[in-house]
């Protein structure tokens, strides 16, 4: 199983990524941010998680937050998490990606069944 | 075992590239040099260079500007330690091709002029050799002695041969911004589409190939273009050009039917090139059913061809390590072989070219288990 996630920074910036171990990834975000950050976690085929991530990077290329020349996996200020989440849910549905939302507002303190 | 996957339709949306495709017609726009100066003045890289000139106290030396004059061809010498050996085929088939030759397109003779008044060629030996030989052949009216023929020379006055050697490298690529494959292709397309000039068969053939791709909403774009975010775009021009018209048709039609919402991944061209050629040799039809089932498999297992490429590359790496004990170089033939072998693994029943099953035998066992498990 592989995972695609959406994450919101403590400042409200929406971001995304992929990980095999999403609990570990969440710990890393929390450690860097100095606080609890929550994720929407989707689970499924590794190739589909990566295809979804690549699609966002391509279609949102004009809306990625850029630090100097580095295109990050965060979006510009004016795109809220609700917009990104709706976009991702639509992509999964329209393109039949084998990914399922397994948790909203997940952080490492929670145990998933 | 029945085939495991069914292609699920993805709603087709209007592709913006149909309207904004830059190859459809030229921009029809010319800009002044001022526009380009303004662009440079705003550029961070340019500002940095100007700062470096200022810091170093460097200034433009007007005496070093190249000079241009009409000189006799007989006054030129070719230093064989600087210029390459003469390529007779280049003179015969490219420069002097009777269907293409036009004196207006000849380049000036690039030389250095020594203090003894000798002109030493640093570039354009093929041009001057061709012109001299055409006179020698009696094909230049009113000129019988090529040595006396006046030709435009561009030269720099120096006795320094190291300078000449460096100049040769610069004029032949090093230090010169080369045309990209896309720019070269765009020129060919515009010669046919805008200038309506069909005198060069290569231009005509390439334009036809691009027209076929466009018919199926597939569009070549520059590799760093802003347009590369739109569906149907592709940047690997070199591979595209190796396909026959039929292979372009089959690949682009398949992309437009099943993956119209994605960029064209370069593996598409390798897959269809090999499917068409191997199925063709075996006299087996690439049936619509097979094409749809392949699309269903790519969609279900990988999401798209880009992820198929990642998976097959990794499987190939593992396969070569297992078989040969080291990681062998990637082989583009593996795309089609892996696809057809996976097709049979998942219960595909359509007839396939046997050569695609023999080559890279056992490759699919090295795909990720979560993909192979989809057969269960």
Distance between the termini of chain A: 15 Å
How would you sum up the major sheet of chain A?
4 strands, antiparallel
Strand element count of chain B: 7
For the largest sheet of chain A, list the strands in their spatial order.
Answer: 2-1-3-6
How can the largest sheet of chain B be summarized? 5 strands, mixed
Estimate nothing, just give the exact number of structural domains of chain B.
Answer: 2
Explain the overall architecture:
With 113 residues, chain A is of the alpha+beta class. Chain A contains three helices and six strands. In chain A, strands 2-1-3-6 form a four-stranded antiparallel β-sheet, sandwiched between helices. In chain A, strands 4-5 form a two-stranded antiparallel sheet. Helix content of chain A is 36%, strand content 33%. Chain A has helices at residues 22-33, 46-59, 81-95, and strands at residues 2-8, 14-19, 39-44, 64-67, 70-75, 99-106. The mean pLDDT of chain A is 93. Chain A has one domain (2-106). Chain B is α/β, with parallel strands linked by helices and 376 residues long. Chain B folds into two domains: 62-159, Alpha-Beta Complex (Conserved hypothetical protein from pyrococcus furiosus pfu- 392566-001, ParB domain), CATH 3.90.1530; 183-375, no CATH class. Chain B is built from 16 helices and seven strands. Helix content of chain B is 46%, strand content 8%. In chain B, a hairpin with a 5-residue loop joins strand 3 and strand 4 (119-123). Chain B is elongated. The mean pLDDT of chain B is 91. Chain B has helices at residues 17-20, 33-42, 44-56, 88-95, 125-136, 161-171, 181-193, 201-215, 237-241, 245-258, 267-281, 288-301, 305-324, 334-345, 355-358, 369-372; strands spanning 67-72, 76-78, 109-113, 119-123, 150-157, 219-220, 233-234. Chains A and B meet through helix 2 of A and helix 12 and helix 13 of B.
Gist of the model:
By secondary structure, chain A is an alpha+beta fold. Chain A has helices at 22-33, 46-59, 81-95, and strands spanning 2-8, 14-19, 39-44, 64-67, 70-75, 99-106.
